[in-house]
Design brief:
Blueprint lengths: L3 H25 L4 H14 L4 H29 L5 H24 L2 H21 L13 H18 L4 H10 L4 H27 L10 E2 L2 E2 H22 L4 H24 L1
Antiparallel strand pairs: 1-2
Helix pairs in contact: 1-2, 1-8, 1-9, 2-3, 3-5, 3-8, 3-9, 4-6, 4-8, 5-10, 6-7, 7-8
């Protein structure tokens, strides 16, 4: 383990990550996981956690931090009347099923495979948000029935594998179905809760009793220290992001979203192949 001054520095860094993730949660409806997962991965590398479980810990811890962050974010957007409650109810069950499938796949995957999934999906979404016009639509309404269940199934599965709140995938998906960007962001903040609760439980159960975990600082694949440091910072910063989301114009919001995703993806690909 690092010396005490190093741990203090890590704590300060995690607070900064938490503040940044909280702003992103409110601003983009992403739960902060898109920043927290790669940051935690590098922290666990510094702490010399076994490489075979580093990404699992990053994903599990991120999902745990998204629970309180999503609650605060969706409440902030709901007070502004921006959350589509009918769509929330329509997507809740297939989202939850997708999370169960994604969690099951994630806990048996290798750390490198999870990193590849994270980097690839983040890059695809960044390209979409950068080069596809914000007013381009596949259709004017969100599909219903069996076809309508497929997008939330996929969003739930990939979000659980990536440790994100769902907004990374849900915002562009809802946009191409004709949902205005601000409404898509607000509704996606509610998806984070549906994804993070069963996902966190699954990662705790999957890592329970793993001899590679340096107990007692971990609850399965959830870092208790990371959770305790990150959650207050993210909760503090969520209202700042919510205010920005309702102040910014749609196009800068899309560019900001895409920029963060592209930088995150590039960094993780560099770690994989650099």
């Amino acid at each position: 383990m690092p010396a005490q001054p190093d741990l203090i520095l890590l704590g300060v860094m995690l607070v900064g990550v938490g503040l940044f993730g909280g702003v992103l949660s409110g601003l983009l409806g992403v739960g902060g996981g898109i920043v927290i997962v790669p940051a935690l991965y590098h922290v666990f590398s510094y702490l010399e956690i076994d490489p075979s479980i580093r990404m699992h810990l990053a994903v599990g811890t991120s999902l745990a931090t998204i629970i309180p962050t999503s609650i605060r974010s969706v409440r902030g957007h709901h007070r502004r009347g921006a959350v589509d409650m009918q769509l929330m109810r329509q997507w809740a069950l297939p989202l939850a099923i997708g999370v169960l499938v994604g969690t099951a796949l994630a806990v048996v995957a290798r750390s490198r495979e999870l990193t590849m999934v994270f980097a690839t999906v983040a890059l695809v979404v960044a390209v979409h948000m950068t080069f596809v016009r914000h007013d381009w639509k596949l259709r004017d309404t969100v599909p219903r029935g069996v076809p309508g269940a497929l997008p939330p199934l996929g969003i739930g599965a990939f979000s659980a594998m990536m440790g994100i709140g769902g907004g990374t995938l849900a915002v562009p998906t809802l946009s191409i179905f004709g949902v205005p960007i601000h409404r898509a962001v607000a509704t996606a903040s509610g998806f984070g809760l549906i994804i993070s609760v069963p996902g966190t439980i699954g990662f705790i159960a999957a890592g329970w009793g793993n001899p590679l975990l340096p107990l007692p600082w971990y609850l399965g694949y959830v870092s208790l220290l990371g959770f305790v440091v990150l959650v207050p910072a993210t909760l503090l910063a969520v209202p700042w992001g919510v205010a920005l989301a309702h102040w910014l114009k749609p196009q800068p919001l899309r560019w900001a979203f895409a920029g963060f995703l592209a930088l995150t993806s590039a960094r993780m690909f560099w770690d994989l192949f650099g």
